[in-house]
Amino acid sequence: MMSALEADFGQTPSQTVGPYFAYGLTASQYGYDFDQPFDAVLALENARGERIRVEGRVIDGDGNVIGDALVEISQPDGEGRYPQTVDEARSSGFRGFGRCGTGTESGNRFVFHTVKPGAETSGEAPHINVIVTMRGLLLHTFTRIYFSDEAGANANDAVLQSVPADRRGTLIAERVAQDGAVRYRFDIRMQGDGETVFFDV
Questions:
Q1: Cα(114)–Cα(52) distance, rounded to whole angstroms?
Q2: For 37-96, how does the pLDDT look when each residue is reduced to its tens digit (9 = 90+)?
Q3: pTM for the full model?
Q4: CA neighbor of 176 nearest in space, from 167, 184, 168
Q5: Cystine design at 116: which of 2, 4, 50, 81 (Cβ 3.0–4.6 Å)?
Q6: What is the rounded end-to-end Cα distance, in angstroms, of the chain?
Q7: d(Cα 112, Cα 95) in Å, to the nearest integer?
Q8: pLDDT tens-digit profile of 6-37?
Q9: Helix or strand or coil: residue 5?
Q10: Among the CATH numbers 3.90.220.20, 1.10.580.10, 2.60.130.10, 3.20.20.150, which is that of 13-189?
């Protein structure tokens, strides 16, 4: 006979925060019949900058890929500028913000279609700001994506250099050129070996 401690009572509300956010904020992605204000496409046809695809997985402390996380990114365009108004975003073809759940792409990946950001200020390396929400988290986490082909700029970036040297690699996306397209691979490890650096914002 199974004891109360061994019984499977299903997920608790705190464990289902991830699904609530992923389905509620990326409704169209999950096939629900209502709109979502942002999706995984940040750069339209006339956006300024090099076209890139940023993709990866969210991985838990046991090494399992999480299929109900929500990843949000914000970044400037290829010239280091954020759109200041809705009209500017429309005219420039660049939205500056994207949102993607991890439950619909193969391998439970997140995939963003954007441009490689320019540096916002002198001395700062190009980067993308990232927010992760998932099951078991009552507060979202903040991290950054830097780029493997920006070694010189990365070496002078004050935020990246504030991270212990043996952990900086957890913030670097690897560039892969495939079929004429540029992709950056970036896995987010929530706990355990190789845990991604998260910032106290």
A1: 6
A2: 899 999 998 999 999 999 999 999 999 999 989 999 999 999 999 999 999 999 999 999
A3: 0.88
A4: 184
A5: 50
A6: 48
A7: 12
A8: 556 665 555 555 556 777 888 899 888 888 88
A9: coil
A10: 2.60.130.10
